[in-house]
Specification:
The structure holds two protein chains of two kinds.
Chain A: H1 2-45, E1 53-57, H2 64-71, H3 84-92, E2 97-105, E3 109-116, E4 119-125, E5 128-133, E6 138-140, E7 155-157, H4 162-174, H5 177-181, E8 183-188, E9 197-202, E10 207-211, H6 215-219, H7 222-228, E11 235-238, E12 244-247, H8 251-261
Parallel strand pairs in A: 1-3, 4-7, 7-8, 10-11
Antiparallel strand pairs in A: 2-3, 4-5, 5-6, 8-9, 9-10, 11-12
Chain B: H1 4-34, E1 36-37, E2 40-41, H2 42-50, E3 51-56, E4 63-64, E5 70-83, H3 102-112, H4 117-124, E6 130-132, H5 142-150, E7 156-165, H6 173-176, E8 178-184, E9 189-196, H7 197-201, H8 203-207, E10 211-216, E11 230-232, E12 239-242, H9 246-263, E13 267-274, E14 280-286, H10 304-307, H11 317-327, E15 335-337, E16 340-343, E17 346-350, E18 359-361, H12 362-367, H13 371-381, H14 383-392, H15 416-423, H16 432-443, E19 448-449, E20 454-458, E21 464-467, E22 472-474, H17 479-489, H18 491-494, E23 511-518, E24 520-521, E25 525-526, E26 533-541, E27 548-555, H19 568-585, H20 593-598, E28 599-601, H21 610-619, E29 623-627, E30 633-637, E31 643-645, E32 649-654, H22 668-678, E33 682-685, E34 689-693, E35 707-712, H23 714-718, H24 725-728
Parallel strand pairs in B: 4-12, 29-32, 33-35
Antiparallel strand pairs in B: 1-2, 3-10, 4-5, 5-6, 5-7, 8-9, 10-11, 12-20, 13-14, 13-27, 15-18, 16-17, 19-22, 20-21, 23-26, 24-25, 26-27, 28-31, 30-32, 34-35
The chains are: A alpha/beta, B alpha+beta.
Chain lengths: ~260, ~725
């Protein structure tokens, strides 16, 4: 008996202590919840939670404003509410954007970096210029100041058929940039025998006749072809069938050929 | 009492016998208890009498190249022996176990081994248990062995031996080294031990552990059926895979053999390394030896690529140049007086052409390999700063390649003149491997890679127990600097004044630097004479994104002085084929003709001087069109970084009034560039090339200017009549 009495007496202070601990813990939890609530309330209602600045990088012809607009992020957007995936998806659907990446720099700066489809040429129609992109789509030239960074892509004329444009885009994409940059104009000039015929004017003053069927394969060798030629003589380089060169002065030889081109 | 003496005698006998008895007992018990006689353990002796132990030889690991081609391997050969002791034939045996007919045996054996019949006979008549036949009876192939066995010669036995075999002969000999039989003191067994090269330094991995077979036998050595056998399996050595590529090594060996024959140089070294990882793909030197026969090895034990430090000569200028660019003291257009540079209290620094080339740019200085140019660069950055870069490039330190006796080289930096001399590769000595390591910093975007030779070590079970691999050993320079260095040193190959023109390779652009180092001989000082130099070249290709580094050194070749044959000729005869074949073998596409000669990326000229920009553009084959009269370039069209073909127009925009040029014969694209550059709206009509412009050439452009051009197809234009061009003027 005496044993038990002692043991109960023994236990009482311990129980007390335990109860104390429990209430303490509860208080701490409640308090921290309360403060957390207060802090989040303050955060949400302060300007810190809103996007303060949006940076756009990597765009050449799609204007910043358009990208920001498409992203759906405004100065009222709460940073924590931004869903990267949604923003990316929206941006990729924007004409001319190949891929997009978004980063939030805490507390409230957003940077968007995009990769555009490479412009392959200026599509010229009815006095208006549009950019022809590597995926065959076209994009408006909205930002004039950035035009310089588009590079020196050729002007594409008389391509009225969308299929032809796609074919041209696919072919242009295959030739090296430096060769693309050396083309001044690409003019669609279909023949009865071959609807794919094109005429090119080069920056160096030469003219190239080719067909879209073999254009990229043969155009790759343009620099080598030019190297073989006398640098003072300008003329027509015919890549349609085989490869031959006719200087402009050689009128006698060229006449028959000329007519054919006028078809 | 009568016979007291008899009693005495009996006592004596008793004592003697009991003593003898005692001794016998003592002996018996001591042997029984200690088991030793004359300090020998009896049990062991008994066992050794009937128990035989034979060693199960562990085979030595194979050394493979990176594609799994064996470079050093064990092969089985046989050693011929003849048992002469008639005791070896048990009485009732059907066939004798010893040589019965020495005459016949000698006659037959003489057919198969390179030894005289008489000599064989003499050996067979010796009063010995067993005889061998020296080198003549060794290294017999299994074919020869089988043929001799068919002759049914009693007493002729074959002892299996493994031999280290190097299937390629003279092939990376100093790198692989060789292994030969040595007597192991502990077991009294002959064992293959690596004597030099990787065979020596990786001996521990390669050698493995011999096993044992224990069994009981009768006096003729036959295993007793009742006796238990104990087997301890041998642990075979691990296989080592190197970074060496057999093909590339063969290219190097072949090229070196040819040059060796033609020019008989005192020494040659050649290394091929992966420019991105530091992996050594090939390594060879001359004179060399054949590791199978060890012919030519006499006083030629050193792997000079690793163990020899030398003054590298002008190849060192690459790293001085890199340091100068990194420090921002490099200005390629700045002029300096070439020829000589005075140094306080020491003889002046001279260019190899002491007269110099007058005032030249630093760019030309590098192309002409001017010592004065690089000394001046060191002067500009300060010798202490330069010393830091030598440390950063890890000169004066071992690279840590697993080869014995690696040299460190010495950076001579005590005297002012030595510091300058170091910048062009004199005074300070380096190893060829250090040069390769430093070069990787240039070819790997500033990240220096530690050279390595062992790809992996694989043990018997196929587990990889050791692995080598690319390891960055420092970042002495930035990526930008590395690229710039490559761009500059490739002009030593392409420039008309460049010293490395011999090293141009068809299809690939090479960036590199030649070196001509003087040879210092004790007592004589620096040697003089047409050919008493170490001629070298370190080069990387393809220059815009190097994949391989090849470093070749040729010491004192026999040059044809009559035609003033340059020392770089024998070097190029190694470098060029090795580089070209290796790149082709690695399927690295040749630089397209166009990109090599016709295409260029437009550099950034913004805020450069207009004059310089114009000359730079012209020298690259572009046609600069300057808008405005300012001195500094604001912008160019197309923008910096655009890839262009040669001959393209580049619009350079500066401050001041922009006057419109004569646009006749311009292409539409070029006109657009101009309109973009001038930021004016423009329109066009027609196609082809410009025949008319609405603003007269020379008119100052204003904000309100609108450019309009008329284009015409050149053929159509020429069609109506001649001389129509006047119309357009």
């Amino acid at each position: 008996m005496s044993d038990k009495v002692i043991s109960i007496e023994d236990r009482i202070p311990k129980l007390k202590e335990q109860r104390k601990k429990k209430t303490n813990r509860r208080l701490i939890i409640l308090l921290s919840l309360f403060f957390l609530f207060i802090i989040s309330f303050i955060y949400i209602h302060s300007p810190v939670s809103r996007v303060s600045r949006i940076e756009v990088k990597g765009n050449h012809f799609v204007p910043d404003e358009k990208i920001i607009e498409t992203s759906g992020i405004t100065s009222k957007t709460i940073v924590l509410n931004i869903k990267k995936k949604d923003v990316k998806e929206r941006l990729i659907n924007l004409n001319g954007i190949k891929s997009a990446e978004m980063h939030i720099r805490m507390p409230n700066r957003v940077s968007i970096s995009v990769e555009e489809y490479e412009p392959l040429g200026y599509l010229f129609e009815n006095g208006r210029m549009e950019l022809l992109l590597e995926n065959g789509q076209t994009a408006k030239i909205e930002n004039k100041t950035q035009a310089g960074s588009i590079g020196t892509v050729p002007v594409i004329k008389k391509f009225r058929d969308k299929k032809m444009v796609d074919k041209l885009a696919a072919e242009l994409k295959k030739i090296p940039t430096e060769i693309r940059n050396s083309i001044s104009e690409i003019i669609h000039s279909p023949k009865k025998t071959d609807p794919y015929c094109i005429i090119l004017f080069m920056n160096d003053g030469n003219e190239v006749h080719a067909t879209l069927r073999t254009f990229s394969d043969k155009m790759k060798y343009y620099p080598e072809i030019i190297k073989q030629l006398d640098s003072d003589v300008r003329g027509v380089i015919d890549l349609e069938v085989g490869l031959f060169f006719k200087p402009y002065d050689a009128k006698e030889q060229g006449k028959g050929e000329k007519k054919e081109n006028e078809n | 009492m009568k016979k007291p003496s008899m009693n005495k005698r009996a006592l004596l006998l008793f004592v003697i016998f009991s003593l003898l008895f005692f001794i016998t007992c003592y002996r018996f018990f001591t042997i029984q208890i200690t088991g030793e006689v004359h300090g020998k353990a009896l049990r062991a002796y008994a066992e050794s009498k009937y128990e035989k132990e034979s060693v199960l030889k562990a085979s030595r690991g194979t050394i493979y190249d990176r594609n799994g081609e064996p470079l050093a391997m064990d092969t089985i050969t046989y050693k011929l022996a003849a048992v002469l002791d008639p005791e070896m034939t048990p009485e009732n045996a059907k066939t004798p176990n010893h040589v019965v007919d020495p005459e016949h045996t000698a006659e037959v054996l003489a057919k198969y081994i390179p030894m005289d019949e008489k000599e064989i006979y003499k050996r067979l008549k010796k009063d010995l248990f067993q005889v061998e036949f020296g080198e003549a009876g060794r290294n017999l192939s299994s074919e020869v062995k089988e043929k001799i066995e068919k002759e049914n010669l009693p007493g002729i036995i074959f002892i299996r031996e493994s031999k280290r075999y190097y299937p390629n002969g003279e092939f990376a000999s100093h790198l692989l080294g060789f292994a030969s039989y040595m007597n192991d003191e502990k077991t009294n067994e002959e064992k293959l031990v690596g004597q030099m090269g990787l065979e020596k330094s990786l001996d521990h991995e390669l050698k493995g552990m011999d096993g044992k077979l224990e069994y009981k036998s009768d006096r003729w050595g036959y295993i007793l059926p009742t006796g238990a056998t104990k087997i301890k399996e041998p642990e075979n050595g691990s296989d080592v895979y190197l970074t060496i590529d057999k093909k590339i090594q063969t290219f190097l060996e072949d090229a070196m053999n040819e040059v060796d024959e033609e020019y008989r140089p005192a020494k040659m070294m050649g290394i091929v390394a992966d420019a991105k990882t530091g992996a050594i793909l090939a390594m060879a030197q001359r004179p060399t030896f054949n590791p199978n026969t060890r012919e030519g090895i006499t006083d030629n034990w050193q792997n000079i690529i690793v163990e020899n430090a030398f003054e590298p000569g002008s190849t060192m200028k690459i790293f001085t140049l890199a340091a100068a660019i990194e420090e921002g003291v490099w200005n390629p257009h700045e002029l300096f007086q070439s020829g000589t540079l005075k140094v306080k209290g020491a003889p002046p620094i001279n260019d190899h052409n002491t007269a110099g080339w007058g005032m030249i740019t630093f760019m030309e200085g590098i192309q002409r390999s001017s010592n004065v140019a690089v000394s001046k660069l060191v002067q500009k950055m300060g010798t202490d700063t330069y010393r830091n870069y030598l440390d950063k490039f890890k000169f004066g330190k071992k690279t840590g390649i697993p080869l014995t006796n690696e040299a460190t080289g010495t950076i001579q930096y005590q005297w002012e003149r030595d510091r300058y001399a170091t910048s062009y590769g004199q005074a300070t000595s380096v190893t060829a491997l250090q040069m390769i390591q430093a070069m990787t910093a240039i070819t790997n975007d500033g990240k220096m890679m530690k050279p390595y030779i062992v790809e992996k070590v694989v043990n018997e079970e196929g587990k990889v127990t050791g692995k080598g691999g690319p390891e960055v050993s420092g970042t002495p320079i930035s990526e930008k600097t590395a690229k710039e260095v490559l761009d500059i040193i490739k002009t030593t190959v392409t420039s008309d004044v460049g010293t490395a023109r011999n090293f141009a390779i068809d299809g690939y652009e090479v960036a590199g630097k030649t070196g001509t180092a003087q040879i210092y001989e004790k007592g004589k000082g620096y040697l003089t004479g047409w050919e008493n130099y170490i001629f070298s070249f370190i080069g990387a290709a393809p220059a815009d994104d190097p994949r391989l580094i090849v470093y070749v050194l040729v010491q004192q070749p026999d040059l044809d002085e009559n035609i003033l044959e340059s020392g770089s000729v024998p070097v190029s005869k190694i470098f060029n084929p090795v580089m070209k074949n290796s790149l082709q073998y690695l399927n690295i596409k040749p630089d397209d003709e166009k990109s090599r000669t016709n295409s260029l990326q437009l550099p950034d000229f913004s805020s450069e001087e207009v004059k310089k920009t114009v000359t730079a553009l012209k020298s690259k084959g572009f046609e600069p069109i300057v808008l405005g009269k300012g001195t500094k370039v604001n912008d160019t069209f197309p923008a910096a970084g655009t890839k262009l073909l040669h001959g393209e127009k580049v619009i350079v925009v500066t401050d001041g009034k922009w006057k419109i040029p004569d646009l006749r014969n311009w292409s539409l694209n070029d006109v657009m560039k101009l309109a973009q550059a001038a930021d004016i709206p423009f329109s066009f009509e027609g196609e082809g090339f410009v025949v008319k412009q609405n603003i007269k050439p020379g008119t100052v452009l204003t904000k309100d200017s609108k450019l309009k051009v008329k284009l015409k197809h050149p053929e159509k234009r020429a069609k109506p009549a001649d001389g129509k061009d006047d119309e357009n003027g």
